Structures are given as C-alpha cells and as structure tokens.
Amino acid sequence: MTDTPATLEKLTARFGERSWTFSESANSANRRIVVPSGQVFQFLEFLKTACGFDMLAELTCVDYLHFRGAADRFGLVYGLANTGTNERLIVRCFLNEPDLAVPSATPLWESANWFEREVFDMFGVVFQGHPDLRRILLPDEFEGHPLRKDYPLRGRGERHNFQRITREDS
Amino acid sequence: MELAVPENVALSKLDELASWCRKNSLWPMPFATACCGIELMATGASKHDIARFGAEVFRFSPRQCDLMIVAGRVVMKMLPVLQRIWLQMPEPKWCISMGACASTGGIFDTYSVVQGIDRFIPVDMYVPGCPPRPEQLIQAVIDLQDKIQREGTLMGAEFHERQRQAEKRALVESAAPRPRPLPILAQAAAHLTAN
Predict the structure, then answer these.
(1) Which of A108, A157, B4, B36 has the greatest count of CB atoms below 10 A from its CB?
(2) In what order do the strands lie in the sheet with B67-71?
(3) Is residue B51 part of a domain?
C-alpha cells in the first residue's frame, strides 16, 4: 500500500539513525517519527522535497502536563500525506518551557498557516517566521492559552464578564 | 344604564386589542447556533408548521423581527453579537431561550460557553430539552402568546417593570395625592397633542 520503507531509508541516509526514532501502531495504520525540535524544519523540508509528502493534512499539539510517564510538556503533531502514493506519516517533536518556539512550516505548505495560528492560540507555541501569527479562534484581547492543562476548566471569568442587558436598557 | 351596542361592534380594551394583534403575528429572529437550530427549522417547516400560530415569518434581519429564538449554545465570543442583535430589534420584543444550552449552558461547562443567556439578556420563555422537539417549541410559542395576551399593554408598559415599581414606591413614600403618569405615556400624550 505504501512505500514507508523507502521513506525511512531516505531519512536514514540524510539524517543518520541516531537523531530520530520510528514507530508504528499494531495494524501499521499509523506510522510516526519523533524528531528533535531543533531539526523539525529540516525533517519536514526533506520529507516534502525528497519523499513526496506534498500535503500537510493536520498540525496540532498535545499538552502532557501531569501525563503519566511523560518527559516533555508539549508535543507537536504534524500529519503529512503523500497524495501520489497515499502514504501517510506523523511527525512529532517535543517542546518544553520556556523555549516554545519552532520554525513555521508555512514556507513548505500553505495549510500550515491557520493550523499554526490555532496551536498558537490554544497552546502558546510560537512559530517563528509565520506571516501572520494572530489568534484565530479566540478574541484578540483574550489572555492565556485555554487548551493548556493548567488553564482552569471553567475559565477565569471570560464567560461572566459581560454587560447585563435588562428590559429597561433595550 | 344600559348601552345599546350594535351587532357589528365589539367592546374591548385597547391593551387587549393590541396584544391580540401582536401575539398572532410574531416574527421570529432565528439565532440558531447548534443542533437546536435543526429542530427550529423543523418547527418552521410544513410538518410541524409554526404558521398555525402566526409565527412563520422568519427574518434574518433583527430590524424586522420581534421574537428572538436563541437555539443553541452561545460562547463568550458570540454573546456581544447576541446582545447587539437583541438591541437592534424594535419593541415590543420577546425572547425564547430554546434548549438546555441556551438556558443553562447545558453540558458545556467550560471557560468559553455562557451559562445561560438570561444572565445577559431578558428571556420570556425557556424550552427544556436537548434539543427540544418541535412540539415543545410550539408549546413555548403558545405560552408566550398567552403571556402577551395577559400582560401586554399598548405602550409596552410591561417592559418597564422596574420603572413602574419605582413609580409605585415613590407614590407610597411621598404620599403624593396625585399619581403621575408613566413618562412614556406622558410622552405619547404630548406627541398626540402636538400633532
């Protein structure tokens, strides 16, 4: 179905065997590589230009605060797809405070633009070189990053702080 | 004294006549944000047929509506929009809070979801359910019609409850011999005499 072994060989030839790891789920439906956060852009660029991953299907983030056995705080998830061969590959890298910055993937895939804005909005990860890194879902004046695990579930009064309109006012 | 009333004349109060006209011609503003909106559409469609109760003219401009139906959850980014639309609707106007989310926030007890729109805008009728069936929404419309008939006044004095209470209290406290008319009525009277 897919030619993941060929991709892995190319990655080994380019980056060696030490810096990244490969794993797959039991039914081989999900294949992923974990790369060092300092090299994530080089990996993505190589996967796009040399391995044919022409589509960034998803980009999201996971907060592993208080997660059992987790060594790192944030895990970025890049879901790549090769539309020619139907090959899919998950690229992961881990970030820790205070250095929550990775190079933006917008030079490689246009679809990274809004994905990165969402991750920035919800987790506060900064994508260096992003053309327009603003909040995308929450209002501009919002403070904090609500999908972080240390953000209070019921918020900090965002849903309460409105003017009350009564019959007399309207 | 007996009054001779011809056959084709009916006696009523002006307030009741106005309320009767209003309640049978409600123009809903569909503020549908979630699955309740689907039930709202079903209510407007031919099977359940809200036209039987004179409320079939859904308009998407608040300027043309007098009944806001909030169907679905309202998040904190949406609430200023909701308030603005409410303020843009001309009086007299009413509001139905449809479903668990609009009424209480429902299962969405998170930072972003407003826990009941009645915290921030006036609500006349609440419809329970998740989502409510069209019959329930129609029941709310019928109950609202009942409320309009019972409480409605020509000049909308029922919407100025706090002001009315203050007037009453002022009368008692100052023991003034002569009741002052409501400002809105005085205004209307002045307008009428001026023309």
Answers:
(1) B36
(2) B28-32, B67-71, B94-98, B125-127
(3) yes
Using omega within 30 degrees of 0 as the cis cutoff, is the peptide bond preceding A98 cis? yes
Same domain, B109 and B188: no
Distance CA B123, CA A18 (A): 64
Instruction: Give residue A1's pLDDT.
Output: 43
Place of tokens 């009942």: B146
Q: Where are the alpha helices (DSSP H) in A111-164?
A: 112-123
- Phi/psi at B157 (nearest 5 deg)? -65, -25
Query: Which of B75, B120, B161 lies nearest to residue A164, judging by beta carbons?
Result: B120
Question: In this complex, do B77 and A164 lie within 8 Å of one another by their Cβ atoms?
Answer: no
Residue B9 lies in a domain: no
Q: What are the respective helix, strand and coil percentages of chain B, to the nearest 5?
A: 45, 10, 45
Calculate mean pLDDT across residues A14-42: 86
B83/A155 touch (CB, cutoff 8 Å), yes or no: no
Instruction: State pTM to two decimals.
Output: 0.79
Predicted local distance difference test score (pLDDT) of residue B185: 67
Report how many domains make up chain B.
Answer: 2
